[in-house]
Design brief:
Length: 474
């Protein structure tokens, strides 16, 4: 018996020394880049160890999924929360929006295995996080393919297909979304679905659009994971920690209510109640929620928001239908209709009704996301349907006039087809919209002949006060 005890003790010491040997070479409190996944693979990942990290205890970890090449910036958003709540952060450098789902999941899986073998990770407290339709939806799918992922922080992204959710891959879903984000109505609908199938979930709202939430909401998500771990008995219950969080959350709900933000207050307090219920008596909070829900102002606001959602749904159906028709028929004549629709959305945004203002922002975001999804599909096809692509690029200059790449795409393809009239029109539209990068214009593919025309140089001289070539008629 003693021999077995000493053997077990020796094994544990060996494991601890193994962690210490590698982990002590990694600096705390800074983002470490280009850590190799394993020696035989060129893949790398980023790692952040909180300032209080040590090797004699187990740590929760958050794997951040970023497919746009901005892994470091995404990780930086979680650093404050990671330090406050004692989480390790990791993010693969190998993820890409152009890669297949299978490839991205494989890369994440390799990183997970590397981290588990190198650091004292609490295997019951591994989570993913991502932003928007690519990173966020990938984070939502990881628990389905990689076991032991216990939760997801999904910023501005819903679960694209709830039919893949089963009791075997149950995880804690935390959605964070702005009220001006086109995913906002979908996130509220998703909550109802998750409630119906018994998936633990929370929805945190803020007043922005399709953007990263502030650090306090990211920290709140990690706190919810901590509370859930205490409720499940995975970590000891810390009464002082729970009471401190609860008092802060009650104060936040009280402030929202005082500011007249009753919809935000009700939804926030409802999430608070579900998280603290297993750990604390919340009779007073139950009374507060009952009072808000009986408030005439709250009920009026709720009806108005629901009516706006109904109107928004009809408009979204129209946009999806007409865009599909326009792509199939190359309906360039309908660009004027789309321009009119954007003018109508601008009227909502500039109007006095706050619900219609938010709807205007959401619908603009929805149209742009719809167009980008179609562009992504067409760009992967072989051969590419250039006529459909140029239609969508032209449409993008209407729906997102400050995104200059789409003007340049139209100019390049038009010049390639020697349609210099169209190229000149979109050159001037880009310059009117504020584009000033002269070097990009001169380096633009397929435009060698277009760049030496008198019209091209006259247009640059008019808007940029300069032109590289002086072409005169003789």
């Amino acid at each position: 018996m003693k021999k077995n005890c000493f053997t077990l003790l020796g094994f544990l010491i060996f494991i601890a020394l193994g962690y210490a040997q590698e982990a002590t070479t990694w600096e705390r409190g800074i983002i470490l880049d280009s850590i190799k996944v394993k020696d035989s693979v060129n893949g790398t990942f980023l790692l952040y160890l909180p300032k209080t990290f040590r090797t004699d205890r187990k740590w929760p970890i958050l794997f951040i999924t970023d497919t746009k090449g901005t892994q470091k910036q995404s990780m930086e958003r979680f650093v404050d929360a990671a330090n406050e709540e004692a989480y390790i952060l990791a993010a693969s450098n190998e993820l890409s929006g152009a890669a297949s789902l299978a490839n991205n999941v494989v890369q994440i899986g390799e990183m997970v295995r590397r981290v588990k073998n190198s650091l004292p990770i609490d295997l019951d407290r591994m989570y993913t996080a991502g932003f928007s339709n690519q990173g966020g939806r990938l984070a939502n799918l990881v628990p389905i393919f990689i076991k032991d992922i216990d939760g997801v922080v999904s910023c501005g992204a819903t679960i694209s297909n709830t039919e893949v959710l089963t009791p075997r891959n149950r995880f804690h879903f935390i959605g964070i979304v702005g009220r001006k984000d086109f995913n906002y109505p979908g996130m509220l609908s998703l909550k109802k679905v998750l409630d119906d199938i018994g998936y633990p979930n929370d929805i945190l709202l803020f007043e922005g659009g399709n953007e990263w939430p502030k650090s306090d909401l990211l920290q709140k998500a990690l706190q919810f994971f901590n509370l859930a771990a205490m409720a499940k008995g995975r970590i000891p219950q810390d009464t002082a920690y729970v009471d401190r969080l609860l008092q802060g959350d009650l104060q936040r709900g009280k402030l929202l209510r005082k500011q007249g933000k009753l919809l935000l207050a009700e939804r926030y307090l409802a999430e608070i109640r579900s998280n603290y219920r297993p750990l604390n008596s919340l009779d007073s909070l139950k009374i507060v929620l009952r009072d808000i829900r009986r408030d005439r102002v709250y009920r009026s606001l709720r009806r108005t928001e629901n009516n706006t959602f109904f109107k928004e749904g009809l408009l979204k159906d129209d946009y999806a239908f007409y865009l599909e028709e326009d792509i199939l028929t190359y309906n360039f004549n309908n660009l004027g209709w789309w321009n009119f629709q954007m003018e109508q959305l601008d009227k909502f945004i500039k109007g006095k009704d706050p619900f219609e203002q938010e709807m205007g922002f959401r619908l603009r975001g929805y149209v742009n996301a719809l167009i980008e999804d179609n562009i992504g599909v067409l760009e992967t096809e072989t051969p590419k349907d250039e006529e459909a692509l140029i239609f969508l690029w032209m449409l993008k200059t209407i729906t997102a006039p400050q995104e200059y790449d789409f003007y340049l795409n139209v100019i390049s393809l038009s010049a390639k087809n020697e349609d210099f009239g169209t190229a000149l029109f979109y050159l001037e539209e880009a310059l009117k919209a504020g584009f000033t990068d002269e070097e990009r214009l001169y380096d633009l593919e397929h435009t060698a002949l277009f760049r030496i025309t008198p019209e091209f140089n006259a247009t640059l001289k008019k808007y940029l006060k300069n032109s590289r070539y002086q072409v005169t008629d003789e």
